[in-house]
Amino acid sequence: MSEITYISEELVMEGNLDSAGSSVVVAGRFKGELRAKDVLLEANSIFDGNLIADKVTLGGLVKGEVSANTLNVASSAKVEGNLKTNALSIDLGAEVSGSITRIS
């Protein structure tokens, strides 16, 4: 069973988090670099920095660069930055401003 790191709505985290073997859920604010197996940014989350993971779901405000093998941008997301991925889905209502690059 994979471990989950949860950053709650009340938490503001700044720095680097390397959780490569587990999942991370961000409900609060994160500024810095985040590395994990899977990442979920909830609808009210704010992320500013670099995000690197195998599977990512963006639901909140994202500023920076996201690199993921599989990337979903949920309808509640607002992305200002660069997306790098092999597989991308963008839900109706999501806002994406920046570049999208396919990685191999």
Structure notes:
It is globular, with a radius of gyration of 12 Å. 26% of the residues are buried. It has strands at 4-7, 12-26, 29-41, 46-58, 61-73, 78-90, 95-97, 100-102. With 104 residues, it is mainly beta. The protein has one domain (4-92).
**Radius of gyration of CA atoms, rounded to a whole number:** 12 Å
Q: Tell me, what's the shape?
A: globular
Give the number of domains: 1
Fraction of helical residues: under 10%
Strand content: over 45%
Please give the alpha-carbon distance between the first and last residues. Answer: 28 Å
Mean pLDDT: 96
Q: In DSSP terms, counting alpha (H) and pi (I) runs of 4 or more, how many helices?
A: 0
Largest sheet: 8 strands, parallel
The ordered string of helix (H) and strand (E) elements is: EEEEEEEE
pLDDT < 50 stretches: none
User: What is the number of strand segments?
Assistant: 8
Structural class: mainly beta
At a glance:
This protein has 104 residues and is an all-beta fold.
Question: What's the arrangement of secondary structure elements?
Answer:
Blueprint: E1 4-7, E2 12-26, E3 29-41, E4 46-58, E5 61-73, E6 78-90, E7 95-97, E8 100-102
